[in-house]
Every structure is written in C-alpha cells, then in structure tokens.
Amino acid sequence: MPLPAGGTWPPAPYAPIFEQYRLLDTWYQGDPDRLSTLYSAQPDQTPRTRPSQRRGGLLGKISRFFWGEPTPVGQQRRRLHVPIASDIATMSSDLLFSEPPSINVTNPETQAAIDDMIPGLQATLLGASEIGAALGGYFLRAVWDSAIAPLPWLDRVDADAAVPEFRWGKLWAVTFWRTIEDTSDGKCLLHLERHEPGWIFNGLYLGTPGTLGEAMPLTAHPETAHLEPAVATGLTRVTAVYVPNMLPNRDWRTSAIGQHLGRSDFAGPVLGFMDALDETWAAWMRDVRLGKARLIVPSAYLQSQGPGQGATFDLDRELYEGVNMLGGDAERLDISPQQMAIRVAEHRDTCAEQLAVILRATGYSAQSFGLSGEVAVTATEVTAKERRSLITKSRKALYSTPELEEGIEMILQLRAGPLFSSDVVPERPQVNFGDSVAPDIQALATTAELMRRAEAASDETLVRMLHPDWDATQVSAEVDRLAAERGGMTDPIERMTGLAQQAGALPVDDGQDDADGDPDGEE
C-alpha cells in the first residue's frame, strides 16, 4: 500500500486516540502551563466560564477537573503540579530495564553479535518503556545509516508518532511520521515512513498542522535528501514491532482500531486522582501563603506615597507620633499581628491517602517510591514489601518478551539479508528480564548447606539455585570443578575425613587389620 496522497493527518478514524495521547503526554510532561491550557483552554489566564464545562465526552470531562476550573476574577493562577505521573513512568522503566535483559541464542557468532547490541539496546529500551508506560506502548523499528554504523539497529518510536495497522492482534504495517520544519507562513514539512512486509516507503509533504498538503520530492529538505522513496527489505515481515505496556486496553476494548493498543499506567480513574492530588497540594501551599505573618495597622500609621500611589508601612521605623483621640484607651490605635494556622497534618494525611490510591490503581508498592516508613534490609524483606511492584513488572515483561524476541530476530534477518549480507545466522533469541531485587547470597548459601546436609539436592541443583543466570555449559563446568576439588568424593563427611587423613590427623584405612585384629584406628 503506497503512502497517502494527501488529506488529514493523522487519519480521521485515529483522531480520538491521538487526542487521548495528547492528554496522557501532558500529564507525563507535568508542565503546569500545558495542563492549564489543555484543561481550561484559556492560555491568556482570563477568568471566564466556558461552554466546554457543560459538554459531555472527553472534552467536557477534563474541563471539570481541578485544572479546568476558571481562575477567579482578581486572582493569579497559583496551581501546582505533583509530578507523580512522570515518577510512575520512570519506575516502570527502571523495574523492567535497569538491568540489561538476558538475550541468548545457540549460535556463537550470533550470540556475539547480540552481545554487541545489548548496551545500546538497553538504553533504547529504557527511554522507550518510560514513555510507553505513559502512552500505553512503543514501537521499535529497523534503521540503518552507513555513515553511522555498517549494520542496522533497533530504534524507538513513540506511540503518538505512529499510525499502526493490526491483523489478528499482530502488527501488520505502520506509518511513522514527524514534523521536520515549521515554516513562517504557518505551514509545516512532514516526513512519513511506512513499514510493511518487504518494503519501506518514504514521503515528504508540505501541509499544515492536521493535514498533509502536497507531496514534495525527498530532496527538498536535507533531512530526507539521503532517503529512497521505496526500499525493498527482502523480508516477508514488517521491519517494526509494537511493544504494549499492558493489555487489555479498557478505553478502546470495543474499537476496531485501538483494541490492540497497550494500556497506559494512567488509564481509567488514575488521572482524576492525580488531579485531586494537585488540588490538595495547591490548597496546602495556599495555607502556607495565607499563614504568613501580617500586621494590621491603622491608616494613620501608613505613609502616603502621593496621589494615586497608595500608602506603605515601614517595618523598621522605631518611633511614631502620638495621636490625641476622644474615647480614651478603648479606641486607641493599636498594631495587631495576624497569622493564620497552617493545616499541615490534615493536608499531609490527605496527600498520603491520595498517593496510596494512585499507586494501588497503577499497580505499584509504596516501598518502590520510598513512601514507606520502614526500611527493608534483606532481599527477602524487599521482595515482600515490593511484591505489588514486582507483580506488575512480571506482567509487563510477559507482554514485552515476545515482541522483543521478534524485533531482535527481525534485525538479525535484515543483517543476513540481501541489503547487508553479513555472516550472522538469523535465530529467534530467548529473552529473560533481569531481577529487580538481588537475591540474598547468605540466605541462598544457608539453604544450599542445609540441602546438602540432608542429601536432598545434587551439585547441579545447588549450582543452578545459586547461579540462576548460568547456562547448561557453565553449570556443568562448575559441577566438574566441585567434583575435582573434592577428589571425587561427594559426601561432605567423607570429604572431611579424607582431608583429615591427608593432614595426618587420622590413620588411613588400607583395608588390613592391625596387630590386635581390629580394623585400622580401632581399639
């Protein structure tokens, strides 16, 4: 299917999805100005009531949020934002890819090629999964440039820069797009890159935000001058994969277009709780502002600054002239201090409960964000306290693993294909995610010792338990080394007896009876 000749972009059926992407991205970025503009649609800060607040649907819903309330007349906007959305997205990425995933194949040359890819791939996955947690997923595409590297690699594309096409839940084709340049007359240059089985198409368009406009030659801009209009990949599969954050997507469950898209960590009622947290925080800071110490003084104590300039009170002035007044002491001119109470405990407890609700809804433990008062010491305690976060990590890994395996296999096939003809042997790898919590080596050693004493496990079982990341060759080599060090003796009592005999502390039993007819060493 060729690139479009014009029309709206993104295509009209995708408009609701991209509107939600814009909403999620605004929360992820956490800019108060963008939040206020998105929800209230009044960038000039002019207080007014808008028809959008009375509408239904997504627009009317978000307009009724705290961020959508008009600023009262005569007040400045002092709304504050708690960046919990970006913290959640970062935590999701750290749980998945703070440790590089284990990627294994059987061919040694292919394994060496994958090992060279891992450092760059891990950095790409860290950034991609963070934004994917906010938007619901991300894309990995094959890219290459001989001026940078001789072979292709995997590059990330955010979900709000792609128009995917699915068949039976699998990515069949996808069109990536980016704005290259905004012109002074309100137009923009758009680059479209379509991936489909066997082909990659490139197109340049001069249009306006929301429309493609007219097609331009790729040589019209330096960013696309080196690209070919069509590239035959030599593969029967698409040179891109979509990695969902989690499934199913509750918002687009019945949508033919969006039902295969991943679910954002902020989906459902989470945005409402985040908005309520911002409202609570803003109210807390309002108490701080109102709680500043103030002095109420008579107008006679104020020093006039001239007509129309108001009057001021000098806090460093030491002497004031007395004022003769009728009425005696009851009507004397006093300076009255005024300071409002700051409701610290009430606001702190409310914020803590709102944070707990947000974390429960997103599937994370308070311990992961350092919100628990207790400090976990051992790995077992850490696992127990962060169990909810680790369950969420395992669920995300379940959806990420097959797509990562497919993407790496696709890159290997592309490298071995007619475009590059490298010596790598394409093979589907096995991807395993690293442990977020390192095991307690002391606890493992104690368990292994008890199992050895009880003769309940072999050397191979114990080695695999202590080194779960080792492959069969490494485990077998370690078992052979242990047997060699023991001199072929596997029983610990037998081994200790042999060592004592070698040191001369015990007689060596040669199978012959001593002079009194008893076996060696016996009375």
Record the SSE blueprint.
Blueprint: H1 15-29, H2 32-40, H3 57-63, H4 84-97, E1 102-104, H5 108-135, E2 137-143, E3 153-158, E4 162-167, E5 170-182, E6 188-196, E7 199-208, E8 211-216, E9 230-232, E10 240-244, H6 270-290, E11 294-296, E12 303-304, E13 311-312, E14 336-338, H7 344-362, H8 379-385, H9 387-416, E15 430-432, H10 441-453, H11 459-466, H12 472-485, H13 492-502
Antiparallel strand pairs: 1-15, 2-3, 2-10, 4-5, 5-6, 6-7, 7-8, 7-9, 11-14, 12-13
Helix pairs in contact: 4-5, 6-7, 10-11, 11-12
Would you mind describing this structure in some detail?
The protein has 523 residues and is of the alpha+beta class. The chain folds into 2 domains: 1-30 and 81-299 and 342-438, no CATH class; 444-508, no CATH class. 37% of the residues lie in helices and 15% in strands. The chain is built from 13 helices and 15 strands. The strands form 5 sheets. Strands 4, 5, 6, 7, 8 and 9 form a 6-stranded antiparallel sheet that branches. A 3-stranded antiparallel sheet has the order 3-2-10. The protein is flat.
